[in-house]
Amino acid sequence: xxxxxxxxxxxxxxxxxxxxxxxxxxxxxxxxxxxxxxxxxxxxxxxxxxxxxxxxxxxxxxxxxxxxxxxxxxxxxxxxxxxxxxxxxxxxxxxxxxxxxxxxxxxxxxxxxxxxxxxxxxxxxxxxxxxxxxxxxxxxxxxxxxxxxxxxxxxxxxxxxxxxxxxxxxxxxxxxxxxxxxxxxxxxxxxxxxxxxxxxxxxxxxxxxxxxxxxxxxxxxxxxxxxxxxxxxxxxxxxxxxxxxxxxxxxxxxxxxxxxxxxxxxxxxxxxxxxxxxxxxxx
Length: 283
Ligand SMILES: Cc1cc2nc3c(=O)[nH]c(=O)nc-3n(C[C@H](O)[C@H](O)[C@H](O)COP(=O)(O)OP(=O)(O)OC[C@H]3O[C@@H](n4cnc5c(N)ncnc54)[C@H](O)[C@@H]3O)c2cc1C
What we know:
By secondary structure, the protein is α+β, with helices and mostly antiparallel strands.
């Protein structure tokens, strides 16, 4: 009985098209999608024998490995490895490249995929914040549907397990080409403080020293953005005067104080970062 159960549990399906994948998925509803495997190994099991169910490998599905560009956007298949996004260079927005360079180490990045980083369900991994800031869109497909969702809305708030519907997978990430003049990222590690981890990004667009757009995104347990607080920067002359800067910091402080998450030391660290970033704009 055990042996039979293990045989089924350890099955690996290597589909070469999405149609084949969905058909295997329908026959094995408990199967786990496997991209680079680094998150699965990190989060659920250390040995193949301990995997929770049959495995649906995405490795051979050619269309998921594609990178294409048009005049308006860059499109990345969900199976593109993190290191490949560093290797292809400047076509990938600086804020995303810099974020990926801080993820794990080169051997892990050679296996880990952008789709796996986005779909890891236990927490928001590092690519969420830059992709939300860049107004990226995700294509999600199931056997019967296809939809696009904004990266900033790909959150697990409604369902703590996943932002994906049942038997749905992320197929493509679409990033509009826009140039940002000032980009900064800050990674908050849990290692020393036990206060929670996350990634904060801040990007600014300015024309003739007048701010024309701003994005502030934090992604940790959930994604935090506030369009009203971004819009207060619009039309401001750079460098900012000190009075305006400290007024803006105060607004962020009040906003963060009202949120249930992030809280405690993490909220203090985030506010310190926001305050030093706004301070930088006064120079
Ligand atoms: C030593 C180490 C250090 C790390 N450090 C960092 C770090 O500093 N920052 C960071 O962000 N990450 C870090 N990670 C996590 C790593 O980036 C993720 O494990 C990785 O991005 C997941 O990609 P993967 O291709 O291996 O996904 P997998 O492990 O194959 O999948 C992860 C999850 O996503 C699901 N999934 C995968 N692809 C899809 C898809 N297309 N559609 C729907 N669901 C899908 C899988 O079913 C699984 O639940 C680290 C990992 C290791 C091992």
